[in-house]
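Annual report, structural modelling task.

Input specification for the magnesium ion complex:
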Amino acid sequence: MHLWRTKEGIRLSDGRHTQLVQADWDALINHDDLAGYLSSLARPTGLDDDASTLRDLDVEVFPPIGTQEVWAAGVTYFRSRTARMEESKDAGGGTFYDRVYEAERPELFFKATAWRVRGPRAGIRIRRDAKWNVPEPELALCVNSRGEIVGYTIGNDMSSRDIEGENPLYLPQAKVYDGSCALGPGLYVTKNPLAPGTAIEIRITRGHDRVFEGNTTLSQMRRKPEELVEYLFRETSFPAGCILLTGTGIIPPDEFTLQAGDRVEITIEPIGTLSNTVE
Ligand code: DO4
Ligand code: MG
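The model returned the following structure:
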């Protein structure tokens, strides 16, 4: 089942039909049994039959977030570890990334407040004071206040590689700025973990040209989603729950940097496709 936050309210789609759900987003995702509750809702009176995908919903769709904070895990894939060791070696940061990849404690960092998050089809931004910018396509976990994963969405952890590569202590500036995080298109609610073979794919289009595409699978992630959540909730409470990005396994080649006008599309089935254009 998918939940869409739209201009008309929260819509629930079971793959064939959609219906409006009268609820507050924060209260809904913190329901005692979200998946069970959504399944129990009566079938609507034929509202928008077959409107099961974002493309079919002819309303403005907002990011699937209420008042939650967005956090992110880093260096959870070998590809991220290697790229970051390379970009920071002149700054003496090379071994930090190798060490955190191997360590028991994961890297977790604050990414965004809800109001800084961009939704599907909205613009995303690169910093004006950065020269080397990339999208990071990541599985995003929707976690309730009790630390339970109740659903999945797609996250784009936009990053300025020249800034983080100059000094690892600049990481917050490379990661946290207006328009640096996109989430969507909706929230895929399920009690079941996603299969390890689940693919994460990215396509970047410039004008009529495909300038980058890449893919990975969840099986390449070194950490389990539950392990990341367990660390995040140690000594930190989330009264409304939180969103946790799980790290990137896809990094474009070093000569690539995003430009204004680039379209970034990230697909994770069964969640959908998150599409944004660089402002
Ligand atoms: O350590 C820097 C950030 C890593 C990150 O965002 C990722 O691996 O996805
Ligand atoms: Mg990342």
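The pocket of 2,5-dioxopentanoic acid (ligand 1) is lined by residues 72, 74-75, 80, 84, 107, 136, 157, 171, 247-248 (CB under 6 Å).
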